[in-house]
Amino acid sequence: MGLLDILLGRTKPAAPDLDQLFGLPSAAVTLEAAAGFRPTGSGAVCFATVEGAAFTQTHREVQALLDADAEREGRPVELSVDDYGYSWLVSRRSPDGLPDLVNDLHAVNSAMEVNGFGPQLLCSLAGFEDTGSAQGRRLALVYLYKRGTFYPFAPLSGAAERRDGALELRVRAALADDLRMEQDLSRWFPLWGAPGL
């Protein structure tokens, strides 16, 4: 960052740190103790779709890599496109297989980054559910690729596009020592209908 950047108040964006994803298993222990949420075994990586042979080849390689590992559990990786045109690569593991799910998310992000498609990566998420609630509350811990931070997303069950802000703030406070949490609440984007949640 140069002197002109300092004078104009520009800041250098944080570099992505994919190793932050490996903090999810320990954060899951804290999350269960603090709020009663357990991993669902589902997770996804969201990226902007790009046309072209290089991107198609990278996508095929990533999917083949994950499918080869996931086939042992009978859960192939799925690709879906949301209403906004973003692609989601969804991995499903057993609920106690969060470390394997984290490896899947890391592998997808790393492969995209190594092949020059890092700018297309948007976020990754791991799904959780409240096992002690009859309402079946859901929660996602979302990793923002470009910020290298996490935030909780808790859609209200049965409510059209409403979220439980109080729960999200409780989860942020509970996980402050486990994960690098996003402090700017305006970056806590809702992920309505996200696969893997």
UniProtKB/TrEMBL annotation:
Organism: Streptomyces zinciresistens K42
Domain of life of the native organism: Bacteria
Protein name from the UniProt record: Uncharacterized protein
UniProt cross-references to Pfam families, sorted A to Z: PspAB (PF22742)
InterPro entries, A to Z: PspAB-like (IPR054383)
